[in-house]
Give the backbone structure.
Amino acid sequence: MIRPDDNLELDLGLDSMQRVELLVALEEELGGDVEESRLSEIYTVRELVDLVRENVAAGSTITTSRAQFAGWKTVLKEDPTDPEVLDLARPRPIADFAYGLTRLVQLFAYDRFQLRVSGLEKLPPRGPYIISSNHQSFLDPVVLGSLLPWPVFRQLFSVGTSEIFGSGFMRILARWLRVIVVDPDANLIPAMRAGAFGLRHGRILVLYPEGERSIDGRPKAFKKGAAILSIHVQVPIVPVAIEGFYDAWPRAKPLPKFAPLKIRFGDPIYPPVESEASEVAYEKLTAELKARVVGMWKELSGETRKQAAAAAD
């Protein structure tokens, strides 16, 4: 039974995408239009219903209209207005020196972190496609990006939070590396629309389907954003598994330490045709992606345990 004071996340287990979908259902049931970014202020069922009723009573027509929620197909085909997102359509390569820096990172990772990589040849040389990996630490995108050949690296983009990339040097770094600064939790629709726009213009999106770093190194629940984008933009997903990154930099530690790192790239996963898009299709593709990533991660974890046991003998 759902109670008015149930917490949307703690009691009902709703992530940011599910909160948006719940909002849509309430709009359809009660009428009214609610600005999606206000969801970040809502914690309980009562607060969510009150928010919708407040807008119904006021006769509000706020920025996120019900027409935008006619379905992900409609939402993702609308072009964004953010100038940084629109830059993805322009033939402006990532700064050459940024690529040079990643080569230094790669050498350092091979030397000090004993990095081992397999399956890199499975990456298509050109976009559009999505690279989807489990997420263990802040080192993940740095080391992953350092492995990519120039034709792939120059097409990369990702979506990052304003908490990390909002100001100072990190903001400059975001521009160099085509990180679109959007808070996915508070602004899920703009984040998804940015991903679709970049993919439609031939770019390669790096997306972590868990949405956050693992608390213990093990893969957690995968959100369906990658599947939704894959189906509606008709691009494949390249599954990637990483291991050792949590040992190198756990969430609770302020700085990393040296630990062996492993990365494995899998064969691309191709989506069903867009006409088959449905909640079932999203969940099925998400389950396949997770199964592939977790399967490779278990292989890497097994190798790590065997190496540790051999070293102990």
Notes: Confidence is low (pLDDT under 50) at residues 61-70. Residues 16-70 form one domain. Strands lie at 116-118, 129-133, 156-160, 179-181, 204-207, 237-243, 262-265.
